[in-house]
Amino acid sequence: MAGDVTLEVPETLPLTIRAVVDNSKGNRIKSAFPLRVYREAEDAGRPVEIGEGSIAGGGSLIKIRTLDGHIAIQKIKRTEP
User: Fold this and answer.
1) pLDDT: is 43 or 3 the higher one?
2) Residue 66: phi, psi to the nearest 5?
3) SS3 50
4) Could you give the CA distance from residue 37 to residue 51 in angstroms, rounded to a whole number?
5) Which pLDDT score is estimated for 42?
6) 3-state SS, residue 4
7) 54-59, Cβ contacts within 8 angstroms, sequence gap of 24 or more
């Protein structure tokens, strides 16, 4: 649960992403895809940074969560053999 997370996603794979960083000090979510990133406070009073968005029209939900880490979502371009 604690630490950094890197997710590599093919740019044509239909997904919906929800990324959460607990105890965030800001700017902890970086994405090659457009995400709506915002901050709020959990009931415990810790700041939380949330990034949400769809890739290729949206699809299955991928949830990523870390405590006091960074989340990087990278784009993989499809290459023909």
Assistant:
1) 3
2) -145, 160
3) strand
4) 4
5) 65
6) coil
7) 54/14, 54/15, 54/16, 54/17, 55/9, 55/11, 55/13, 55/14, 55/15, 55/16, 55/17, 56/11, 56/12, 56/13, 56/14, 56/15, 57/14, 58/14, 58/15, 58/16, 59/13, 59/14, 59/15, 59/16
Tokens 């929800």 belong to: 18
pLDDT digits (tens, 9 = 90+) for 41-54: 766 678 899 999 99
Residue pair 3/69 in contact by the 8 Å Cβ criterion: yes
Largest Cα–Cα separation, the chain: 51
State the Rg of the chain over Cα.
13
DSSP 5-45: EEEEEETTS-EEEEEEEET--S--EEESS--EEEEEE-TTS
β 29-31/5-10 pair status = unpaired
Q: What is the dihedral of CA 75, 40, 69, 57, to 10 degrees?
A: -20
